[in-house]
Amino acid sequence: MSSQHYKKKHHYETPLVKLSKSLSYVLRHHAKDEGLDIREDGYVKLDDLQEKTGKQSG
């Protein structure tokens, strides 16, 4: 399968995929830039993440 065919087939991202990518981007690369407090063990509080990203759990 050519890469061009792959791109055409997968150009649409579901809302869940978009959310996953944006959270991964913030958590992997910009947690401090977003003002998230990273614990010593590398975790952030979900409430803090939701507050910064405007996302609410279902």
TrEMBL record:
EC number annotated for this UniProt entry: 2.7.1.160
UniProt GO MF annotations: tRNA 2'-phosphotransferase activity
Transmembrane region(s): none
Protein source organism: Racocetra fulgida
Protein name: 2'-phosphotransferase
Uppermost EC category: transferase
Gene3D superfamilies: RNA 2'-phosphotransferase, Tpt1/KptA family, N-terminal domain
Cited InterPro entries: Ptrans_KptA/Tpt1 (IPR002745), RNA_2'-PTrans_N (IPR042080)
